[in-house]
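pipeline: protein-struct stage 2 | run 1193 | Metallophosphoesterase
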Amino acid sequence: MRTGRKPREIICCLLLFVFTATAQEKDSIQPALGSEGSWSVVVLPDPQNYVKFKRNQPLLDMMMNWITDQQERLQIKMVLCTGDLVEHNDIINPDGKKMDQTGKQQWQAISAAFGKLDGRLPYVAAAGNHDYNIFSYSHWPKYTSYPDYFPADKNYLNQQLLREVTKNPEGRLSLENACFEWQSPQGKPYLFMTVEFAPRDTVLQWARSVVSQEKYKNHTVILLTHAYLNYKNERIVQAKYDLQDAHYGRDIWEKLVKPSANIRLVISGHIGEKNNARKHVGFRTDTNNAGKTVHQMTFNAQAMGGGHYGNGGDGWLRILEFLPDGKTVKVKTFSPFFAASPSTEHLARRRETFDQFTFELN
């Protein structure tokens, strides 16, 4: 009868334990699916501060490369961007301090960054205030280069899912106001919809008419817009811009979200304060007119990493894991930038309750 192990066996077991523990610890830094059959949506926060400086653009490329690298492991099915794709729509003489890229160069950079997803993943990009002629808001209509750099046929995967589109403030058909139909691996239908920054009444009416159509009544609608919640979890009432026919969080809720039975999740960006993660996020839950729960989430990172003239946002992304039960969503906040180095990988996950949580789409 064997009564004990030899010293060599004990040492091997200890080494195996150490190596396994180390591997598990390292794996825990990288987000992983918690359930077989889950799928993910990645939320890309306002990228304006990545593209306005040439030095920061490689960081955005790193984030996009990480998304494509993790596509299979995390079963990523969609990427949503909260807007402010550029810092300035049409600047031609940057001063080198506030930005060193012209408006054209910024649009080229963000289009190229999303180009890494073209043909691999569908994505929906909201239009933010900086994507319009923000220093000429006294002039109407607001105008943008968005449709020139994000045409419907830029990514054939987007084009395959595109179902509805309407005109932007200049009267151009543009993906600033569009919706995309997609079905989960479990067969649940979704509609990903985006509306322009400070949407006009006609856009809110259009969006409401779309989601109320019979063919979409059983879809779970995820609405993407730029300015909706502040960090106090309050819906934004107004902004500093003197715009005509402009609507922010409160109006979007009252005119579109609350009356619509199937809008179940709203995602936005826009807000942020230097190196303060808490003031880049918001979350609240309310009940719509149909008695259904609506979750409203803001996620941004534009002033992390040194403020608006820092590195662009420390590489932060948000991963939404949709569990196979069709209702549970797990939220994780992760930075591929920090995860890239052993000296900073311990900073790559944000685990505060406002950055890592679970909610249900009932």
